[in-house]
Specification:
Blueprint lengths: L1 H13 L6 H6 L4 E10 L2 E2 L7 E5 L2 E5 L5 E9 L5 E7 L4 E8 L3 E8 L19 E7 L5
Antiparallel strand pairs: 1-2, 1-3, 1-9, 3-4, 4-5, 5-6, 6-7, 7-8, 8-9
Length: 143
């Protein structure tokens, strides 16, 4: 009986069909994330606090603290450390990022693709790069 219950439980947990590597890698990112801080050019970016990033499947929506809305899809590569993420905006812009998560925090460092800097490889910025770090906290489902 237990042998039959485990596959059924796994099937119910992941839905029908197989789970792609992309879906599996994006699972920890799912939900609503609130910006708690940022850094650009080695200096704090307090103006972005309280922005929100929502991730459902491979789709994202960013609502900036200033009221702008950005939508697009995520491409995840969890085969490297730090993990890589491309945020492909609906307008065609692409942000190349590295990211890390815990149960309730996410940190990413990104640049605009095609700019002067390649994809970041760590979580530091300096006045010599266009890298931007954003720190987010997962919003609790319970209020």
């Amino acid at each position: 009986m237990i042998r039959l219950a485990l596959p059924l439980l796994l099937l119910l947990s992941f839905g029908q069909g197989s789970v792609s590597a992309q879906d599996s890698a994006s699972t920890p990112l799912q939900g609503r994330w609130v910006v708690t801080g940022g850094e650009h050019g080695g200096k704090p970016m307090d103006a972005i606090k309280n922005g929100v990033m929502s991730i459902v499947g491979n789709a994202f929506e960013i609502r900036t603290a200033s009221g702008n809305v950005l939508n697009g899809t995520l491409r995840i590569d969890a085969s490297t450390r730090p993990f890589k993420m491309d945020l492909v905006h609906a307008d065609g812009d692409v942000w190349e990022a590295v990211y890390e998560t815990t149960a309730d925090t996410m940190r990413l460092n990104y640049v605009e693709k095609g700019g002067k800097d390649p994809r970041p490889v760590s979580f530091t910025t300096s006045e010599k790069t266009e890298e931007s770090i954003v720190t987010l906290r997962r919003e609790s489902l319970q209020k």
